[in-house]
Amino acid sequence: MLRELRQKILPLIKDVLAKIEDESGHDLFSKTFKVGSCSVRLILSKESWQLMPAYLLGAPELDAANAEMARNSIITFFPRTIEWPMKDSSDPLFDWDCHLVQTGCGNAKADVYGALYFYLRGLLRKFYRHLHSSAKTSFVVSHHNAISLPELMRDLQSSESAPILFDRIDCSNVADEEFLGIKKTLATVGPLLKPKSENPHATILTPFLNAIDNADSSSGNTGKRDAFRQHYRTLMSLNPWALQEFHSGEPSLRNPAFVRIAGDTKLLRDHEKFFNMHMIKQDFSAAAFHAGVKMKQHHTIIEAWPMRLKKEQGETGAKEEFELLRASGHVGCERYVEWVKAE
């Protein structure tokens, strides 16, 4: 696959680089690539265009022999740093639904990366068939700050055409308060959503990854101690070894069992209570009103809490569900909100 990408894609990128060689590094440049009835338009800065060949060529000095040496001696892989340079979220499994990935493992239940390979291969094949069955599919990939999306849409719109509006807008987690927040997010994308008269199912999707932790942090240490006592028996049935290690080990924040227990307790929190606190603090009602949107009463695209533990203590499969979530890289408190036009 990499060889094919180098043969077909790399020359297209080099052609763009040749044309913008004398331009400013921070300016944006667009290029549309067409294959049959499908097209991809990239709007990137010169610096981003210049980085693209590296993803296809790899490091020129890392030949097969050096790559094998690096694998055999992890110390030589990162020789100039005192910190571990790979984030704990770098595991490729962490970006996918662990339950769906498991459907591709067949009889090799423990081969999780093999299961991921077959799951992704099936997903990409399905996507490929969908593209080729459509009359026309176009992608526009832009290197812009999310807040400038309306301006970009006006630039893409021809002088005589109708405004560019969308059937669905996925905001990633920019609505988390550490980023744009819910007010700026809805104010930016709300006007870009199609009206109900044109598409009654048009939806804005805002995932919140940090809302529960932020609300929980404001509850203070007393609330955390109460939560630990409340969930102690549940933790004993789900993860007894960690509690044993916690009580027998050093009473320190550096105790691995303490870190594990702290994470386990988070999975058992009252997520609804904390998200309601978050909505009040961030004034979701005012944000929706000014953006001309409202929350869906019933989700139609994704569950509100797709990663949350669903089985009760003692229920068949509860321990397995708990262990799978702990190993998945998800935190269980991912909250999705779906929005539609208010009118």
Q: How do you describe this structure in short?
A:
This protein is an alpha/beta fold. The protein has helices at 2-8, 10-19, 46-57, 64-72, 98-102, 112-133, 149-156, 181-189, 211-217, 220-230, 232-238, 240-248, 256-267, 271-282, 284-291, 318-328; strands at 28-35, 38-45, 137-142, 168-170, 203-208, 293-295, 335-341.
Primary descriptors:
four-stranded mixed sheet; 16 helices; three-stranded mixed sheet; globular; 46% helix; 12% strand
Describe this structure as you would to a colleague:
The structure is a single chain. With 343 residues, the protein is α/β, with parallel strands linked by helices. Helices cover 46% and strands 12% of the residues. The chain has 16 helices and seven strands. Strand 1 (28-35) and strand 2 form a beta hairpin.
Helix content class: 40-55%
- Give the helix/strand class: alpha/beta
**What is the makeup of the main sheet?**
4 strands, mixed
> Beta-strand level of the residues, as a percent range?
5-15%
Q: What is the straight-line distance between the termini?
A: 48 Å
Radius of gyration of CA atoms, rounded to a whole number = 24 Å
What would the principal axes of the Cα set say about the shape?
globular
Q: How many E-type strands?
A: 7
